[in-house]
Amino acid sequence: MNPRPGTPLELNRREFLGNVGLSGIALSALLNDGLLANAPAGQSPHFPPKAKRVIYLFQNGGPTHVELFDGKKTLADLHGKPVPDSFISGKRFSTMTGQAQGKLLLAPVEPFKQHGQSGATVSAFLPHTAAIADELCFVKSMHTDAINHAPAISLLLSGGQIPGRPTMGAWLHYGLGSNNENLPAYVVLTSVTKNTTCGQIFYDFYWSSGFLPSRHQGVKFRSKGDPVLYLSNPQGVNQTLRRGILDDLSRLNHFQFQEFGDPEIVSRTAQYEMAHRMQSTVPKLTDFSDESEKTLEMYGPDVKEQGTFAHNCLMARRLIERDVRFVQLMHAGWDQHNSLTTELYHQCRDTDQPSAALVRDLKQRGLLDETLVIWGGEFGRTPFIQGKMEDRKRWGRDHHPYAFTIWMAGGGIKSGLTYGATDELCMNPAVDPVHVHDLQATILHLLGIDHESLVYKHQGRRFRLTDVHGHVVRPLLA
Fold first, then answer.
1. Which of 124, 257, 266, 308 is the most exposed place for a label (fewest CB within 10 A)?
2. pTM to 2 decimals?
3. 46-227+291-476: CATH number
């Protein structure tokens, strides 16, 4: 079925420009000069940006703020006591907890100390993060609406709990375009802590373009083998032949676009061209032989092992050096329902040193001021125990959307700041609450975007990343 009503002769000016003119002109330019159809979406920053790039160190599973960042003496003093009803009245928790009444409060497993001139509180689980506390901005009053992993991750990254909306990186590509013709503007890297029993899944909608044109979606690099499939030409196919095949495909796509007017045809042409250029750029990107031993040591012993968090952190730095706009690292395993005293140690060892090394590395190369680094998950963990108090080897905490901690660095963020606070049991924000939509609005603001103005009309409604919510948290801004 032809989705474009009538013939070009019957179109009015608005229909012509909306369905044919601009897309047709863009495709024609691609075919004429051979460039990538990855240009900005017609928008530039609304105001001068503080950050030009983002590295999101997303910790899938819900890192426990109670163990890592939010030590409270009262919680420790009430260890083993039932959680007061006043703290949980009217709240819903996951089906693993069910009714929270009568659950016993659990003190943090490791001690907390203040670090740096800022006096930021970080636990012994994260010594490398603690050592760079003065470079970081901790937000300890985050909260969200979802109580399970996939809806909460979707809400944080796309603004909606139900899959189908564009994710943050896709919105930025749509709004600001790409600064690199040879690599995707939005790259995703995934890793999982070794020997974890956590079954977190990386769903494709975590980096989806949603209803935006598909050229804006994240490109996931594989954690084993070639990071991108088909980097090498098949036997008997040289670059000249490959170029000829792509030119012929472009012409065929041009004819199809003239007939149907489907903008996805333009995206398909762009993706073919991007894949062709990545054949030469990706091998250089993934070759760490030009990195000094000092740099490799800084990221830790796993840095040369593809698919590890350390390897991906160094890849993230190399990607933003090449002007990739949004790099999303997703590390699974932070789901300590019964492993606070076992697997949480492995999780922190895998991620603590590389996270701190990335911030240090960016700073010493002069990249941190224009690169926003974010560390955090989709929610926190309950202050009360999941499991039996007498079985210390299986202590755990359930999902907790009502309060959690993230940290940020660089890119216009005020360093050495701890913003917001929870109550004495780490249960609820008590000072300066920050909703995930507020975080989204703040991230866009740092990149020079008014979150209320970056919109896309879909099915008769104008959508945005922050939905109909969100406020810029201005005290976080440098």
1. 124
2. 0.87
3. 3.40.720.10
